[in-house]
Amino acid sequence: MTLIVRDVRPEVPADTEGFARVRRLALPYILSTPESVRHSALHTHPDARYRPLVAEEGGEIVGAAQVLLAHDSGEPGQGLLNIHVRPDRAGRGAGTLLLRTAEEHLASLGATKVFSWVLDEPADRAFAERHGYRASRSAYFLRLDLAGGGLPPLTPAPPGVELRSAAEFADDPRPLFELDAETLQDEPGDVGFEAPDYDDWLTSTWHDPLLNRELTMAACVDGRPVAFTAACTDGGGRYSTSMTGTARAHRGRGLAKLAKLHSLHRARAAGVTDAFTGNDAGNDPMIAVNKWLGYEICAAEVRHVRELG
Known about the structure:
Elements: E1 3-7, H1 13-26, H2 34-43, E2 51-57, E3 60-69, E4 78-85, H3 94-108, E5 113-119, H4 122-130, E6 134-145, E7 161-165, H5 174-184, H6 198-206, E8 217-221, E9 224-233, E10 238-246, H7 255-269, E11 274-280, H8 284-293, E12 296-307
Parallel strand pairs: 4-5, 10-11
Antiparallel strand pairs: 1-2, 2-3, 3-4, 5-12, 6-11, 6-12, 7-8, 8-9, 9-10
Helix pairs in contact: 1-2
């Protein structure tokens, strides 16, 4: 069958559904829906030059790629690339063709270095190494079986702390933005980035169709959020936290753990059965929090990097 790579057409449901399905099958630990695929295609910051690609074999979508520039990094020329192929179609050339198309696109935009997350599996790592990528930092995916119990009981907020959902900030989400922007600066990673712009945050994060504002919880002091966990859901019983953090002046009090605990209890009451999260392998404090909550490591991935040219 003929194998081709082409751009995603965000207005075509078959494209967004096919892209999301590939992601779910290849990387079930990350939420992906047709709506989120369409939103990313249309609303990723223009400076990122985001280009979602699909690989088609015999008219069927069998692979997908996210290709963009790290536009918010202080260092120019850094490209980001993630490739996924349906497990039942692996080894038939879709990944190689997606990779070649993506690298050519990034090179045309002036990228000199490409970063890519690769599952920590022998076949995935061998593919990356064959194409000139070298391993960098590692990260874990963790899963919590909410349907099976095991979640610690709710604990009350300490004196002077109030727990509020993001939905309660609907009229003015800027305080959540400011907290998110501060905590993102301390996220471990090999690609540095600058604080986001508020309008871009509203578009990319606040209006992300995966964000569940009722389950996103913030610990507040004097009405201002100082710790939070951002919760995403896919409408199919799956939940994921995309970010959990605490303002520097309030760390060491267990407030992020408290916010996440309350979010998970709300999620279970709402019918969520599977909760996922991710941690940099070197982020010991957050790994400890997630293990206390009952999460278990279910997979790992390794960031790979390649110099273009």
